[in-house]
Each structure stands twice: as C-alpha cells, then as structure tokens.
Amino acid sequence: MLKKRLNDAWRKVTARFDIPDRHRDVIMQMMGAAWRRWRTEIKAKSYDLNTPLDELVSIRPIPQKLTPEVWEALCHYWNINEFQEKGRKPTRIEIIKISHRSKKRGDAPVDDEVIRVETLLDEAVWRRLQDKPEETQPIEVHEDAFRL
C-alpha cells in the first residue's frame, strides 16, 4: 500500500483514538489483516471465476458498497490470480493479453499496436492448432506459437 495511504489511515485512527505512536506497527498489521479478511469475504460472496470479467465488472449494485473503480480493480486482480489458484502459471500470451488492457476503458486494448500483436498471436495459435488433434486446447500451443 502507498505510504501516503498508510499515513492517512494512521491519522484517521489517531484522530479518533488516543493511541501512542509506538503502537503504529501493531495497529497497521491489524488493519492489514482486517482488510484481507474483508476482501476474502467479498470474493467468496460476489466473485465467480466462471462469469466473464466484463459481466462481473458491470454488475449492479456493486458488492459491499464499493466504488466502481475499486470493484473493477479487485475483479481484474482476482482474474489474473486465478491462474495461480488453478495450479498453473499464465502463458506469455495470456500475460500479454491481460497486461495490455485499459481498466478505465472497459478492458479495451491500450493502443493499435496491442491489437496488431494480439491478432498475430491468435493467428499463430490457430495455425499451430491445425496440426494438432481436434481435442487440443489453444493454451497447449501458446508457448510454441509465441516462439514464431
């Protein structure tokens, strides 16, 4: 978390409660643990990895009275981290597609070059799939297609 936000949080706590500065580290650890518990609860109640990201981001009302920006950021964060939770690392193609999108513009590509590169990668994956058995999944040829 940014130091400015941590300092703001500490100012709010000390404005309301009479806490000596020597207890700051412990209070901040407690606040961090509370934040993680709260975030886990929201994810368990409101996030579904089987729902497309654009649908999750656009649900109304937004869970737990979050701001739309915070809800969108959480959805993107959870979506990226689903790869690790599923027991595999994302491929380089998946990382490129996730990291070159604008959260502020509804997951749109950040520029025309991204569109061009994604199109080339998709075509390379498609070409590689033509030489494989029908049940082969696109992700199985990602690394091979990336090398072209």
What are the SSEs and their pairings?
Elements lengths: L2 H14 L7 H23 L6 H5 L10 H18 L6 H8 L1 E2 L5 E2 L2 H19 L11 H5 L2
Antiparallel strand pairs: 1-2
The average pLDDT score comes to 80
- What is the count of structural domains? 2
Largest sheet: 2 strands, antiparallel
Strand content range = under 5%
Number of strands: 2
Structural class, please? Answer: mainly alpha
Q: Uncertain segments of ≥5 residues (pLDDT<50)? A: none
The strand line-up of the biggest sheet is 1-2
Q: Classify the helix fraction into a percent range.
A: 55-70%
- Order of H and E elements: HHHHHEEHH
User: How many DSSP H or I helices?
Assistant: 7
Radius of gyration: 21 Å
| Alpha-carbon distance between the two ends | 39 Å
Name the overall outline.
elongated
Description:
The protein is mostly helical and 148 residues long. The protein folds into two domains: 26-89; 91-148, no CATH class. 62% of the residues lie in helices and 3% in strands. Strands 1-2 form a two-stranded antiparallel sheet. It starts with a helix and ends with a helix.
Question: Summarize this, please?
Answer:
With 148 residues, the chain is mainly alpha-helical. 62% of the residues lie in helices and 3% in strands.
Which features would summarize this protein structure in a list?
148 residues; mainly alpha; two-stranded antiparallel sheet; 7 helices; elongated
